[in-house]
Specification:
2 copies of one chain form a homodimer. By secondary structure, the first copy, chain A, is mostly helical. Chain A is built from 5 helices and no strands. Helices cover 71% and strands 0% of the residues of chain A. The first copy, chain A, starts with a helix and ends with a helix. The model of chain A has no long low-confidence stretch (mean pLDDT 96).
């Protein structure tokens, strides 16, 4: 699994826990819904700026999303 | 200050604390020295993959670098 693939899983999980749609997250974070969909499927590599934008929309710290990726990579989920 | 600008400062500080050159960090992280130089000057936006590569070369967690950026943004340094 690639880093962007793991990030996609983390992003989707985090969004679903908050019960918000891709559309709503797009609106909150100022990104395109299509871009969020591509990231959730591991088809785009997020920049740090994108991670900050998403974390604003998800109301978590950017470093929390990165920690979740680290955790999943280390446990090979 | 932009997010990539703050990241550049964090990257340079972290590299200098470890007393390694841009050349050495490039070698350790599998990136171009020129790319590292551009990032340290805030001229490139790092992807999550790049942050993972750099953190390997710096022997820190990727989330540590992101936490440092959060800290500097919140304290407006």
């Amino acid at each position: 699994m690639t880093i962007e693939g793991v990030f996609g899983i983390v992003l989707r999980e985090c969004r679903k826990k908050r019960r918000i749609s891709q559309e709503e997250l797009a609106h909150r974070s100022g990104l395109d819904r299509t871009f969020i969909s591509l990231m959730e499927r591991g088809k785009r590599k997020p920049t740090l700026n994108t991670i900050f934008a998403l974390s604003g929309g998800l109301e978590v710290k950017p470093s929390f999303l990165v920690q979740e990726v680290e955790f999943k990579i280390h446990t090979r989920v």
